[in-house]
Amino acid sequence: MATPLVLLPGLLNDARLWRHQVEALADIADPLVPDLTQDESLGALARRVLGAAPPRFALAGLSMGGYLAFEILRQQPERVERLALLDTTARPDLPEQSERRKTLIGLARGGRFAEVPPALLPAMVAPGHQTDPARGGLFLEMAEAVGAEGFARQQTAIMNRPDSRPDLPKIAVPTLVVCGRQDTLTTPETMREIADGIPRAAFVLIEDSGHLSPIEQPHAVSAVLRYWLQAR
User: Fold this and answer.
1) Domain segments of the chain: what residues?
2) How far is it between the farthest Cα atoms of the chain?
3) Would you identify the CATH topology of the domain 3-93+157-230?
4) 93 three-state secondary structure
């Protein structure tokens, strides 16, 4: 029987972030990729996801999706069977990070959203992937689809997130922590902190990948998610 699998995208991402994983895992998983552009708080986003999700499910989230995964676990932990956290952090925003987000929101809502995705691209994918249509190009396409208001709502939710580090020792389900080795936003050291904080978590580095590992190295990410879904 296929495992219900909720896949949470990151900032300026849509379901295309997980396209390879949805297809590659179709024989063992029944995936759901929610729209994370409609709410400006993690609490509201978690309630929306939980309202659409099956009673029990495996949960994977990248970046903002990881912040949301922690919130889902705070709200209804009994519904999550296993957890995968990709290229994310358990830490809250630093003041300077929040200020940068506010600046970008101002650009987006001031009619200059077209400037935002290209400015963010170098932090999103490894240098060699920025001009690749299937990597950097796909990020820009997803960002355009999310749009200015969706971006502003996502950034508001992100900068108001709580510190999830105190919650890490409470996570009692099989957990996979995945990071692109070239990720400069949520670095391998940041991700190692998560893995070390969760009892018996597995930690995997994805070679030749930046922040958007599911599209930068789709085969590798699909392979480790398959192992995670099938592990007992």
Assistant:
1) 3-93+157-230
2) 50
3) Rossmann fold (3.40.50)
4) coil
Handedness of CA 78, 81, 82, 88 (dihedral sign): negative
The pair of three-digit structure tokens given for residue 123, joined into one six-digit string: 């932090």
Note whether 6 and 55 are within 8 A (CB): no
Contact (Cβ atoms closer than 8 angstroms) between residue 63 and residue 185: yes
- Beta-bridge partner residues of 59: 6, 83
| Ranges assigned E (strand) in the chain | 3-8, 29-32, 57-62, 80-86, 175-180, 202-206
The amino acid at 77: P
Amino acid of residue 170: K
Span 169-208, pLDDT tens digits: 999 999 999 999 999 999 999 999 999 999 999 999 999 9
Across the chain, what does the average pLDDT equal?
97
Cα(184)–Cα(41) distance, integer angstroms: 25
What does the pLDDT read at residue 1? 83
C-alpha gyration radius of the chain:
16
By the 8 A CB rule, do 121 and 212 touch? no
By CB atoms closer than 10 A (0-12, 13-18, 19+), residue 205 is middle
- As a whole number of angstroms, the distance between CA 121 and CA 171 comes to 32
